[in-house]
Amino acid sequence: MPFHDKRVWCVANAANAETLARDLKHTRTLCTGFRLGGYLFLNDSTSEDAIQEYAIVKEDTRTQVESVTFGWCSPEEALEYVQDAIAGKYDDTNFGRIDRRQIESPVRHSCALCA
């Protein structure tokens, strides 16, 4: 389960694994999320000033399969984590589930974390 079980994420589609790996290393608002290959990458950092931590969630089951501190990764390591996730290499792991209401599209999303 992501550290922040009450957080609602604004999830946008990522163009590809390379772009996503780069984006996950940069500071984002706490409600930022990305979608790629059937997986959600949800910002699980404690603050915008904190190292960037993301929960990786299998979208169809809403099950968290991994948690990665992308802020500590080299660009190559970040890409490897993204590729491994969308290849299903972490699917046997289960950290818990997120509620469907915690995921919103950029069109619908508005919260105090990004306002």
Explain what the structure shows.
With 115 residues, this protein is of the alpha/beta class. It has one domain. Helices cover 17% and strands 28% of the residues. It contains 2 helices and 7 strands. Strands 6-5-4-3-2-1-7 form a 7-stranded mixed sheet, covered by helices on one side. Helix 1 links the parallel strand 1 and strand 2. Helix 1 crosses helix 2. The protein is globular and about 35 Å long. The protein starts with 8 loop residues before the first strand and ends in an 11-residue tail after the last strand. The mean pLDDT is 88.
Tags for this model:
115 residues, alpha/beta, 7-stranded mixed β-sheet, 2 helices, 17% helix, globular
The tally of domains stands at 1
Major sheet attributes: 7 strands, mixed
Low-confidence runs of at least 5 consecutive residues: none
From the alpha-carbon coordinates, what is the Rg to the nearest angstrom?
13 Å
Q: Could you state the order of secondary-structure elements as H and E? A: EHEEEEHEE
Share of residues in helices: 10-25%
Q: How many alpha or pi helices? A: 2
How are strands sequenced across the largest beta sheet?
6-5-4-3-2-1-7
Shape field = globular
**Gap from first CA to last CA:** 25 Å
Structural class: alpha/beta
Strand content: 25-35%
Mean pLDDT: 88
Number of separate strands: 7
Summarize the helices and strands and which ones pair or pack:
Layout: E1 9-13, H1 17-24, E2 32-36, E3 39-43, E4 53-58, E5 63-69, H2 75-86, E6 96-97, E7 103-104
Parallel strand pairs: 1-2, 1-7
Antiparallel strand pairs: 2-3, 3-4, 4-5, 5-6
Helix pairs in contact: 1-2
